[in-house]
Hints:
Layout: H1 14-25, E1 48-49, H2 61-66, H3 79-83, E2 93-98, E3 104-107, H4 108-112, E4 118-125, E5 130-140, H5 141-148, E6 156-161, E7 181-185, H6 186-190, E8 195-200, E9 203-204, E10 214-216, E11 229-235, H7 242-246, E12 266-269, E13 276-277, H8 285-288
Parallel strand pairs: 1-4, 2-11, 5-12
Antiparallel strand pairs: 2-3, 4-5, 5-8, 6-7, 6-11, 8-9, 8-10, 12-13
Amino acid sequence: MKLRVTDKRLYMNRREFIATATAALGLAAPSRVVAQPAVHGRRFENVKKSQLSTDERPNPWEHITSYNNYYEFGIDKELPAMLSKPFKTSPWTVAVSGECNKPAAYHLEDILAGESLEDRIYRHRCVEGWSMVIPWVGFPLSAFIKRCDPTSRAKYVEFTTIYDPKQMPGMRSHVLHWPYVEGLRMDEAMHPLTILAVGLYGEVLPNQNGAPLRLVVPWKYGFKSIKAIVKIRFTEKEPLNSWQEAAPSVYGFYSNVNPSVGDQAYERRLGEFLKRKTLMFNGYGDQVASMYAGMNLRKFF
């Protein structure tokens, strides 16, 4: 499939870019969900229920696996489900480097070895004004970080996705500077809500949802939850994230859900008609607000 490239000036505002591309190409509007045939994979065994899950009803499998922001496979939310099918996720290696005592190339099997997988039902909020509730399968990122033994100089964690334009046709466009990079402050990375996800609805993570290993940070906007991770680096300095590099006036490093920044006061849950008010920290304020005490969350957005 040949992708069209929109004029570069539109990349400086992602919402404007998406709206323009949608109108130009006749793509689905954000409120429209086109369900693809449900393709289920291998189920995990002995997954524990997490006490940190929301009691809200999850979106159905068809919503979660057919409506995706995954620009490596195209800007249209229906493209990842179609174009990611041949994507190879095995074997998979994550290179750990930087300010840690145990840098290494960890195979996915080694990362999962000894980890107790949990069922985490989390709310998710996208900057375009839509949201979902997703039942992830994963484990605390903090557990893996402890295995890497970061030094006292490690203040941040940087994540990088795979760079493979042959398998990821969206990378042939210039929407972003590839590969995709994201980052967290160390206390954010160590927070119990932050997980590395390997599945959803009890099954192995589909390619369009970030297989085989992705980050999930539920109190931040969805673009912070980087997919298909191949590098983790511990740094002393704040890493430059992909959307922050592309549009620094719109996408800050923290990207905490803050309804007072931009046009974010309301959201629409996929499958619902009416909008609802956007909650500060996506409703996880009781758990995470203390990490940002004293910070100007309009300046450090």
